[in-house]
Structure formats: structure tokens, C-alpha cells
Write a structure and sequence with these properties.
The structure is a homodimer. By secondary structure, chain A is α+β, with helices and mostly antiparallel strands. Chain A has 16 helices and 22 strands. Chains A, B: Pfam families: ATP_bind_3, TilS_C.
Chain lengths: 455, 455
Amino acid sequence: MQENKASRNLNDRFTAFISRHHLFTQKHRLLVAVSGGVDSVVLCHLCKEAGFDFGIAHCNFTLRGEDSNRDEAFVREWSKQLNVPFHVVKFATQQYSEEQKLSTQVAARNLRYQWFEQVCVEHEYDFILTAHHADDNIETVLMNFFRGTGINGLTGIQPVHQQVRRPLLFAKRHELESYLKWHGLSFVQDESNLHDDYTRNYFRNTVLPLVAKTYPEVQDNLLDNIGRFNDVAILYRQEIKRLSKKLLITRGEQIHLPVLLLQKTPAMKTVLLELIKPYGFKATQLNEVIQLLGSESGRYTLAPSHRILKDRKHLIISPLENVADTAVVIEKGTGTWEFAKGAITLTKTSVATPGKEVHVALLDEALIQYPLLLRPWRAGDYFYPLGMKGKKKLAKFFVDQKLSLADKEKVWVLEMNRKIVWVVGYRIDDRFKMTDKTKSVLKIEWRSQSKKPMD
Amino acid sequence: MQENKASRNLNDRFTAFISRHHLFTQKHRLLVAVSGGVDSVVLCHLCKEAGFDFGIAHCNFTLRGEDSNRDEAFVREWSKQLNVPFHVVKFATQQYSEEQKLSTQVAARNLRYQWFEQVCVEHEYDFILTAHHADDNIETVLMNFFRGTGINGLTGIQPVHQQVRRPLLFAKRHELESYLKWHGLSFVQDESNLHDDYTRNYFRNTVLPLVAKTYPEVQDNLLDNIGRFNDVAILYRQEIKRLSKKLLITRGEQIHLPVLLLQKTPAMKTVLLELIKPYGFKATQLNEVIQLLGSESGRYTLAPSHRILKDRKHLIISPLENVADTAVVIEKGTGTWEFAKGAITLTKTSVATPGKEVHVALLDEALIQYPLLLRPWRAGDYFYPLGMKGKKKLAKFFVDQKLSLADKEKVWVLEMNRKIVWVVGYRIDDRFKMTDKTKSVLKIEWRSQSKKPMD
């Protein structure tokens, strides 16, 4: 009787959770991901009792031979019992994970979600339902916490993520087990538990029980935390959004960030990281960007798609294709990089004799720092032409070389820290040339688009 | 040599931490709290090497007999060696904790900080220095996390708290131990460790080492977390401040909070709690206040100093002394409460015979809900006088009772949920009287200020 009440209670909390988080309604068609384990079996039963319109999807990962087939047969039978559509697929998970060089766990997840989405399209399901529950959520947050995280890592598994809905997040594992027992439902050893990593099981079975000895309410405390941290994260993001509006000034394709205003901002480092993250900059680059604040004009930091340039009183964030046509960032001293005018190949060598080949540059490797930037030349560029003492504007250099207007337009330069290293196909910079002291040579070879080296 | 470098490194990081957090300078006089344990011995040595102007304060808590005296002697000797002023005090900690009904730990802390502050005044010290270090900080945050916390609990021990400065927060315990060993410093078994609670030691010695098996970098990860959460907390508080300005409208002594605007606010519950916290409302009252949002006008919730009243489209927060002179909140059905006109005492009894004593009210306890509010009557008040069927305005009742203007001004009422329960010293409300069905009686006795019961 007690248990019946608790079970009834779970049905009510299930529908209450769904409507509170606006997960879905009776009008939607739901695809429930079912491994056959306790959690997904209970999820189906709750959906059935609540009268939702759903089908079942089961992945056979073929990782455990006959056991995998047994699970598939079980879920097929369970679908029949519930009288709902059944979708099944067999994956060559092992093979896929080897081909794609992924862990079995990641491979299984990729395959699974790709297929779910496909089933949704083909059979007109609105949402994918998974059986993640409160214990999963606690374990996830705990692992994030110990692994190091910002506020987002403490908000846990979200009830809504793209097409996925997770209507069991409110329920604890033991509640699902009681429900299952009360209704006399069968289940199989959940295959997904076997993919589940060692760390999660360690936290579940070893760390959490130890903490519970001191704080018996630890599960509820952590769930309450997750609720609060979701709110904190919402308010935090609002504040970041407000600061973005205040600090980022859009100028055409560029974003200007006033250095003084930024430096006066409380929690400056965190704010700066949040401001540059959307442009592809990583937390590991933060210190580099902070150094830009105090550096002379012209210094910059690169992300795959954007550049942050220090320009007097501002940091200027620009898309790279805008900065320099389709500029190319060269992160290290070996390899080949394609660009609009062909490709350049960098190699290191200990011996090299400078020749007349203008499509090859031989530089003192010790003087080169990465990243390098390959970009079209622009007005105002200058360099120290090889063999000359002084510097020369590129415009003047091209006149001396008697270049046509059309030829001039095609010229690209290789740049390091605002210094031109090589006017590609014409002349290297005197400051980076090989000398008697050179121990290692950086050889850069350019093949033009037409595959004919230019000379 | 390696170790010397690490030790040197600690000196540099010590001064860097102090200047980065603006803790103090060479101009300040510092009082270092020294138990004689590793941490505080190292703190003194670092202060000496950095050339800071400091004295040593030692508390003898007399909790461990001769051991306590040995510690005191050790610290006295250590002060001589360092050639700095020594301040010492003996506390009858056990006696104090029993008198004040405090745990030994809390008692010791109270005594210690009170005395430190006194020494600072008498001997012109600017700041009190304690030797809390990174491991303390990690353990504190971890305990908060498992006990349940908001963002503030994840920001850890602060380097600055009132007059206290904590310049060792950057250092790990093992670094302090290496420093001590390298410099060949002596120390005693830190008495404060004995006061330290069981939980902290459990986390230090059992939980953290287990987590480190999976995440060897857990200490650094948690320290990084603390840094990030401090920034998150700053940005969170800024957003709360902005929302306060937007949502709270000051009207004289009252604060108006527009219900619709509040309900549209993201993370509403958390925002609401932050808005009402400064007025003494607790997290445990939050659901009650949320219910007010949808309730009819006139309902309210009380904190010791303030009331939140639902009034049509607003919640109105008012100071109680303003709402009703020096109104008194009665939270439970037994005890004595002082107020401007004397005191009332509430007791529960199973048998009582109503008499003529108007300074005593006998009510059906089952009908009474807490808190009750004791306040001066005001225009518009009405009640159902005992023995009458209908309701009557108090103004009319006083006329019938032939009260003088001066007497009228002195009348107070006891109110429950906007209903008057008792016109104190005159008449109870008919709705709350004892009947045949009454099982338990709430007896309320009023003694007037002059200690003469009024009748």
C-alpha cells in the first residue's frame, strides 16, 4: 500500500516534471530510447500510463554477442506488450570505433544519436526521450566538479537538449527500482552501463557512499545545488550578455573592445574569456590575450577563424577571411598549407645553400616564432629586403621590381608578429636570413595554384 | 638545491599574493595568530623574511593541560628568536563554552577573535593574520558543496575578511611542510587541529585521497574552480544588484515589488530570495513568499524586522516598527514576548475555565496558526467580539466600551493572518474561543508595563 502510493506518486511527478519544463505534450510523437535496462523500461511504462504517443528505438551494438541479441529480443517483446512501434538497428560498433579512432563509448553514442535522428525524420517523431535520472545527473556534476569546471559544469544534464528530452531527471535510481518492482516489470542488464566509464561507477559506488556517511542527505543536497546553479548560470549569462553589449563595439566586420574599460571591469579575466569564446578563442589562450592588453600596437593572437589585434586603445577582433582575404594561419614549422595562390610547404633542414629560386625561402629557424600568417600584402606594408640595410615599403619595392598593377595585386606575404618574413615569390626579409651562426634552416617552398612554381 | 629553489619560490609567491590581493604593505603593523603548528610557524618566518612589521598573538585555550602550556612556551620562545612582540592570553574555554552553551570549537573561535581585536586596538595593529592555506580552502569548499550551497559557498575562504588577512591561501600544505623542513624550523602539534571537526579530517584523509585516485590533479582543479567561482559570484552579484534596482521601488519606508514583472524574470525564485534576504527573510520562507504572489491582497509573511504584504499588484516590504509601532512577532505557542505595553506569555493547557480576567485570553489552540503579530490597533481594524454573531469595527467597539481618547491610543491587538484574535485587555474574538470540542487551550496572559495586570 505504501509502495503503491510511492509508485502513484512517481506517475504524478513524471507528468508534473514534463509540464513544468515544457518537455512535450500529448500531441507530440515521442521516440523512447530503450536499452532494456531498469531506467528505460520504467520510462516506457510511465509514458504508457500517462497516455503519451510513443515508439521504441533499440540499438544493438553487437558488442556482447548473444547477450546483445537477447537484449534486442527482450525490447522487441516489451514493445509488443506495450503495443507500440518498434525500431531496431544493428551496429558494427567495434569496427566503426576502430575506423574512426574513437573510444567504444563515444562511437556508440555517435552511432546511436545519428540513427535516432534518422528514425525521427523517417517516422515523424518529434522528440527523442532518454532515461537519464537524478543519480546520473549527480554523478555528472560531481565528475565535472573534480575535473575542474566553471558554472556551466555545475548545471548538470539538461531536461531539453536539441531534439532530446529527459523526463526522468527528477527521479532517483532507487525510486525507479521500486516502481519496477511494484509493477512486476522485467528488465535486462543495461548494456549502456557497460559502456559507462570506470569513473562514473567509481563515484557512484565508492565516493558518494563515503560522503553519505558524513552527509546522509548528500544526494538531495547535490540535487538542490544543481537547481540553484542553473539559476546562477542564467543570471551569470545575463550579466555577461549585458557586459558584451557594453564592451563590444561593432565596426563593420570588426569588433572593437576598449582596453581601459575592460581593465576596469570586475572579474576581468572571466569576462574577457566569455567575450572572446564566441570567436573561437580557448581558455588556454586567455593569458596570451591578457598580455595583448599591455603590449604595443600591432601584436595579435589567432584562433582558427579570428584574430585579436592590439591597436592603440582597443583590442580588435576580426574574422580572418576579412583580415586578409583568405589568410592562412601556420601554427608550426612543418607541413603544407593551402591558400588562394597555391600552397606552401615548411620543412626543417640542417644544410641548405641559398639559390636563385625565388619560390623558395631559406630562413634561420631560430628566429621564427609561430604562428605565422600568410596573407595578401596591403598598403603600408614594409620589410627589410634581403641584402639591404634599411627598410622599404612594399609599394616602393614593387615599383623597383617593375611589377604591373595586376601582378602587384596577386602578391602575398608571410608575416610573423607584424613583421614581414617573406614577400612570397620575390624576396625574403634580411632580418630572418641564414647566417654563419644558423644551426637549423626553415625551408619554405611555394607552389602556385597552377602547380607551376613561379619564378 | 631543488628544495631551496622551491623554498625561495614560496617567499616570492607569498609577497606576490599579498600585493595582488592588496592585503597589506610594509607600512602596516600586523598581528600574526600563532598556534605553534606548521602553518603559523611558516607564516611568521615568511613575514620575517619579507621584512614585515609584526607581532605574535598566542591563545592558550587550557584545554589540554600541560600540552597547552608547552605550546605557549614554544611560541614565546619562537617570538624571542624572531625578536618580535609576543602577546598571550589564557582562556577558561571549557567554562565559557558551558556557560554560553557553545561547542568547544565555536567557543574557542569567539574568544580568540574577540581577544585579537582587543590586542589590535591596545597595541595599534592594523590587521590580524591567520595561516589558512590552500588545503583548508579546498576542504571548506568541498564540505559546503556536499552540505548544499549556492554560489557563495563555492568561493571559499576569502583573503580579506573584515580585519583579518590570510596571506597563505595560495600555498598547499605540503609546500609549507617542505619550507619548514628546508629551514629546519620547529613546531608543535597544532592545537587548533584538535578543535577542527571530524568532518574536515574525514574529507582531508579519506574522501580527497579517493578522488585523487581518479583525478590526480583534483587539488589544482578545485583551486582553479574556486578562482573561477569567485569571478562568477562577482558577476552574479552585479546582476542581482541590477535586478534589485529594476524590481524594487522605494516608496518612503516601504519597498514595492511589482508581481507581474517579478514573475517574468528568469530564475525568478533565486532572484526573489536575493531580493528579500537583505530584509531578514530566510530561504526556508521562500515558498511561502512565492505563494503570496498568487494570493489575495492582505496576506503577508513575517521576518523578525520586516513584513512582506501582498497588495493587489505588488509585494510590499515594510519594516515592522513602521508597520505597527514596535510590533512583535510571536513565532510559537509558548514563551514570553516583551512589547511596548508590557509582556505577554503564551502557555498551552488542557483544562481552563473562562473567567472575568480581561488580561487573560483563553483560545482554542487548534484554531491558532503562527506567527502571530502583536501590534497597536489602527483605523479600519474590526473583529468578532466574543458573544456576538457579527463583526464590529474596533472604533465602534471602543465607543461602546466608553474608552477615552487616551485609553484608545494605548490599545494593542493580537493578529493572525489579518484576523484579530484578541483586543488585548478587552475582548477575544468569537471565532477563536474555546468550545466543547476544544482539546487544547492556548492561554495568553498580559502583564502591563507597570507590572500591574490591568483589568
